[in-house]
Amino acid sequence: MPAQRADARRNYARILAVAEEEVATHGADASLEQIARTAGVGSATVRRHFPTRHALLEAVFRERIQALATRAHELSEADDIRAALLDWLGALTVYSATVQGLATALLRAGELDPDHANPCVTPLAEAGEPLLRRAEQAGAVPPGVTPVDLVTLIAGIALATQHHPDPAAEATRLLHLTVTGISPPG
Description:
Layout: H1 6-26, H2 32-39, H3 43-49, H4 53-75, H5 81-98, H6 102-107, H7 121-137, H8 147-161, H9 167-182
């Protein structure tokens, strides 16, 4: 693939910066046309860089999703695997509850279908797998819980709290309520 021209790189960076703001304000359904207008480019330029809404959302959420995936890898070797799993789920909960549009992106219809990888769910599920399996082996979660189950649960909590005055605090409270059901202490 040939290197991008300098103006194409600038357009990409400008579109991504505007998209991050628009998604933060309007959620995963932010207007691509508005993103183009605000970035000072045409709709075709946006679509050239991001051929689908999914590609745009993946780029918007990529850095934080990668940080959460890295955190899961780090925690997978912790001595207290239950605490490590809850630490990771807490970080995912706070991020999902405070970033407009992420929960919707995590729950897009049909995207949990293995033939259509979700660019937000897939890296989180892959990163959470070793952490979850260790927790299962330690008896901290029941057998059969999948990483996608956990991501879906967190996304549901985030959606349920998105209009709360303090979505992160309320989402964290609901996660703790939920955890009692999936992994009682002791």
